């Protein structure tokens, strides 16, 4: 996937503004370099002037090892899949830690267990949109959740526009499920050396003007009444 410097810059701005990353922050680099989450962590630390904390793989395993590392290094920001956070006792990470959950669905039970005295954010985004396309506000132990108690994936990040469309590329109203399309500066150029696949996934944007493109995610979502996105399933499920 060929992403741009423009997309990386927008992602870094989102991290500074929404996640409150500052030069005094300490960001844990936990993801394998084979995943786009590693790029997310590198940018969060290095492009914000923060400290990027790196350690051996064994020290990053969810459980006592990871909890000990976070406390020992004074980590302020870490990104984990919900399944990894779910195996850790809720009192194992310090109060005030910023937790970004991404990569799979986050459950209300996880929010209830972890959000009472920490900053917890539910994020969503494929690599083709420079890692992150939408992000929730800081969650609270008792909400805010969608009416059906689903944890929202939030609203578009800096420089990004999203559209929930039917199979004829028409916007659907709140509460109705449609496919998520992402437009804006974070959209990648395409797949290197794969013109046909690029053409099928990166399509003309009829809403932005100026010959822009939008990425067809293949994810089904819906808008809530208060303007949050909720993930439903994959198109091919």
Automatic annotation (TrEMBL):
This is Non-ribosomal peptide synthetase. GO terms for molecular function: phosphopantetheine binding. GO terms for biological process: amino acid activation for nonribosomal peptide biosynthetic process; secondary metabolite biosynthetic process. Keywords: Phosphopantetheine, Phosphoprotein. It holds the Pfam family AMP-binding. Residues 1-192 form the AMP-dependent synthetase/ligase domain. It comes from Streptomyces sp. NBRC 14835. PANTHER family: FATTY ACID SYNTHASE (PTHR45527:SF1), NONRIBOSOMAL PEPTIDE SYNTHETASE (PTHR45527). GO terms for cellular component: cytoplasm.
């Amino acid at each position: 996937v060929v992403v741009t410097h423009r997309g990386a810059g927008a992602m870094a701005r989102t991290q500074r503004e929404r996640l409150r990353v500052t030069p005094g922050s300490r960001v844990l680099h936990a993801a394998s370099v084979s995943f786009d989450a590693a790029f997310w962590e590198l940018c969060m630390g290095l492009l914000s002037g923060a400290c990027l904390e790196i350690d051996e793989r064994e020290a990053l395993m969810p459980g006592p090892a990871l909890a000990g590392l976070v406390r020992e290094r004074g980590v302020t920001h870490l990104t984990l899949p919900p399944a990894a956070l779910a195996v850790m006792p809720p009192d194992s990470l310090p109060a005030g830690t910023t937790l970004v959950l991404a990569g799979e669905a986050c459950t209300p039970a996880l929010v209830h267990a972890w959000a009472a005295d920490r900053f917890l954010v539910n994020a969503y985004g494929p690599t083709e949109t420079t890692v992150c396309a939408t992000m929730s506000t800081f969650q609270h132990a008792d909400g805010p959740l969608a009416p059906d108690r689903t944890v929202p994936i939030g609203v578009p990040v800096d420089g990004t526009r999203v559209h929930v469309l039917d199979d004829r590329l028409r916007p659907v109203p709140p509460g109705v499920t449609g496919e998520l399309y992402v437009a804006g500066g974070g959209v990648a150029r395409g797949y290197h050396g794969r013109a046909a696949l690029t053409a099928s996934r990166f399509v003309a944007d009829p809403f932005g003007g100026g010959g822009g493109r939008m990425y067809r995610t293949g994810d089904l979502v819906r808008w809530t009444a208060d303007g949050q996105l909720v993930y439903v399933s994959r198109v091919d499920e």
